Amino acid sequence: MARQARVKAENAIYHVRIRGCKAKPLFEDNYDKEVFMDKVSKSMEKYKFKIYAYCLMDTHVHLIVDSYGGDISVIMKSIKERYTFYYNKKKKSNGTLYKERFESTIIENDGYLIAASLYIHRNPKDIIGYRNTPETYRFSSIKSYTGGIDEFKIVDSEFILSIINKFKYFAVKDYVKLFNDTMNIENNKFKELEMKLDMEFENVKYVNKREVLKRNCSVNILAHFIAKEIGLEVEELLIKNRSYNKDMRGIFALMATSLCDINSLEIGKELGGITASRVCTLTNYGIELLRHNSKYKNIFKKFIAKEASII
């Protein structure tokens, strides 16, 4: 039987589930979970999507992903492949890690969005030691919804909290109350909670408040912007295997992947005719520059503010 086509939209928010094979867990220990979060962070640098909630269990992962104008399949492929490479290297294997494709559901209303975050955050109830205190579980975004800080710096809690109340102090208090109220709700009753919440917040439609990043930027404009920021001539993008222009080529490969709606082969042509594999290497180098070199930390934001379309 042919697979059913995944329902996608460029401005969608998704509830995503990743499940491991029955034969082995996704995560054998906390270090595996730390690595997974790092892989998510790297994929976020590459594709500029947003995470509104997450929870990592031993056998599966829950995420609320705002594709922010990107392709959810490309985003999830990046995350899964990065973690699979680490896992197989660690285990010295090349076996299947995941149970088929990831599952995704488009979140179409405020009630579902809030209810999905509550459902995700209460998942640790199934872990020994967290039955009555799921809010203390380390690999969940709940802390950023209850006045704390997200250790892994990937979650955007402001958006959901802003739906509940425009004042963060009261939004946090209301979210904590909602979270505590869900402790005795059975999993199959969350649909009723969703409907109740959607009625309560029916006058606040997130579709009208959200931004969507258009991914059709001009390659030429991007190249000139990066060259000016770094202080080189744009023609020097074409020069291969030189140390002095490696930063420019790495950042161009990264930003073009995210913003220009072209594939690795096309980016390779813009960089003087290099392979898709080499483009991938340069892209990963660009990610590390953005993460660890303060000179380039805000280059995406500067370009988007000046040249990219946000609707």
Automatic annotation (TrEMBL):
InterPro entries: Transposase_17, Transposase_17_sf, Trp_repressor/repl_initiator. This is Transposase IS200-like domain-containing protein. One of its GO terms (biological process) is DNA transposition. One of its GO terms (molecular function) is transposase activity. Residues 9-123 form the Transposase IS200-like domain. It comes from the Bacteria. Pfam families: Y1_Tnp.
